[in-house]
Amino acid sequence: MATWQPTWSDPFFQKGQFITGLWNKKRYRIDGMLGSGANGEVYRVTCDGQTYALKVSAQAPEISLEHKILKQLQGVARGADLGPLIFDLDDVQTPRGKVFFYVMEWVRGTDLPDFLQKRGAHWTPVLLLQLCTYLERLHAQGYCFGDLKAENCLVNEEHGIVRLVDFGGVTPFGRGVKEYTEWYDRAWWGQGSRLSEESYDVFALSMLAIQLLAPEARKGVSQIGPNYSMLKKAILSDPRFDDWRGLLKGVGDGRIRTIASLREALSPLVKKSVETEKKLKRKQTRRRDWTDWLLLGSAAVLVLVFCQFLLF
Ligand SMILES: Nc1ncnc2c1ncn2[C@@H]1O[C@H](COP(=O)(O)OP(=O)(O)OP(=O)(O)O)[C@@H](O)[C@H]1O
């Protein structure tokens, strides 16, 4: 009978499994996978009745570096929710050998495209403005986020609050960005270096806006390769970018290189978004009023019918 042999494509853990850290002896129940990427896998876990996110990798340096950065940020930006809060760092033995993990706050949220689909594209500048605030705080600590991308942002559906996850690309200013994704990488587009600096994240934010407003553009680029001037031309003729041209042009020609200037360029768009949201809310209330009347009307008819029934 053939026995099951683990392969590299198998996940590290299975749902329902319990794991115990070799050093700290904390016992976690694996509740499911939250995501996976080049550096490892992230699981939702339970320990002592609390839910956490656990990131595991076969590469010890990646895990300990991410843990160190998150811990450092937790210390300096208390209450600022810069990154997920950090709880444990340990190793565990698996059929694939010893693997390394850290345990962090489970960030509940939807990904940005799903959120925008539900709440409307007019939320894009609002989400970007929030990211500006996080990045500004990170920059103040002397770090560039590096691997800014839609997959690394989770948004709370109820309140529309964005959180950043995956701090694996966070790099001290002045070094080469250690983790990046082509679409968001200005060097890939031939628009600058991969040096870890404020303007690197600014460029990535502008690419995030394009990705969110015109997701199909990225698919086209994956077929023909990076061509920034072609992308700019496409944006010029696309009505979805009517309000965004000034900002995107500013980033493209190097006028907008800081988060402060990006925030300034975003502010009229945010104002417009707020107006759109208000109008939508008013419409929804009106629609609700109308349905309320319909309900009241139906109730009145029912009462009348009931009275007629009693009288005759
Ligand atoms: N703290 C968290 N709470 C909830 N979900 C999380 C958390 N951390 C990560 N995730 C989810 O897991 C996914 C993968 O995590 P992460 O990006 O850290 O892995 P990675 O291997 O570094 O990926 P990549 O190769 O894309 O950089 C994220 O996109 C996110 O959806």
From TrEMBL:
Residues binding ATP, per UniProt: K55
A Pfam family it matches: Pkinase
Residue stretches making up the Protein kinase domain: 28-294
UniProt-listed SMART domains: S_TKc (SM00220)
Transmembrane portions of the chain: 290-311
Keywords: ATP-binding, Membrane, Nucleotide-binding, Transmembrane, Transmembrane helix
Protein name, as recorded: Phosphotransferase
